[in-house]
Amino acid sequence: MLMKVRNKEKKRVRFRFSFLLLFILTSFVICFTLYMNNEIDIESRLSFLFDVNEGGENSVAEVYAEADYTGENTAGIINPVRKSARAQEEYFRNALFIGTSVVRGLSDCSLVPGESIITDTELSIPSINDITVTYNNEETDVFSVVYDKMPVSVYLMFENIAAASVDEALYFDSYSNFIDSIKRINEDVSIYLISVLPVKRESETQTVSNAVIDRHNTKLYELANTKGISYLDINTEFKGNDGRLPSSVNVRNSERLNEDAYREISEYILTHIHSKE
């Protein structure tokens, strides 16, 4: 009788050990599957941090500018963006504006916080991957700022259209790659291309005329549709009956916009926000 009891006890122990082994194997398979699904993302994040903190061989700009992006997250956008319910000024705190004089003016007039602005007189699309910018009193590059801030929205406005006239294909290919680089950092970000404003009659030249600007804005509109992002048409909003920028929006005897004009731009942005819903 005693031998039978011992045999039963041995069988019971063997059963428990098998159950534990099965549990361990199942857990390993699940963890390994999750790891494989996230391997690429984890490695890219770690390599990014290594480059920034340890002075890696590739700069932050090179890491993201050279990456291909094939994700989709902006289906169903209608351009130009239609008028929407007005957002509060706090909206700008979670946005990032990248551009030249108009972007700087929004900050100078205290309409957009300084931490939501990247601007430089040398900032232009063909060379944006190679330019060092000053942000929060530190020398950095555009992609590092996008990564650190992780904005909900990014607004792009580059007014140096003369660069586009030199080699239009190269310009818009570079613009397209720049957009892809931003999406590579944050695929959920909403990106807005802002049209270039018209110019006054006396400011028109052969290379920068309102006809040239209109053609440039048409290409921006087509680019926005191709990339599945938003396009803001402030050009039409500011264009006078003669198809030019009214002199009344400029500071007297200056090419700079006055504060009322910047307030109008700010208001236009706050009332033209694409909804993802």
Question: Care to give the gist of this entry?
Answer:
The protein has 277 residues and is α/β, with parallel strands linked by helices.
What does this structure look like?
With 277 residues, the protein is of the alpha/beta class. Helices cover 48% and strands 10% of the residues. A 5-stranded parallel β-sheet has the order 2-1-5-6-7, sandwiched between helices. A two-stranded antiparallel ribbon has the order 3-4. A hairpin with a 2-residue loop joins strand 3 (133-135) and strand 4. Helix 6 (168-185) packs parallel to helix 7. It is elongated, with a radius of gyration of 27 Å.
Map the helices and strands.
Blueprint: H1 2-54, H2 60-65, E1 95-99, H3 101-108, E2 117-119, E3 133-135, E4 138-140, H4 142-149, E5 153-157, H5 162-166, H6 168-185, E6 190-194, H7 210-227, E7 230-232, H8 234-238, H9 259-270
Labels describing this entry:
elongated; alpha/beta; two-stranded antiparallel ribbon; 277 residues; Rossmann fold; disordered N terminus
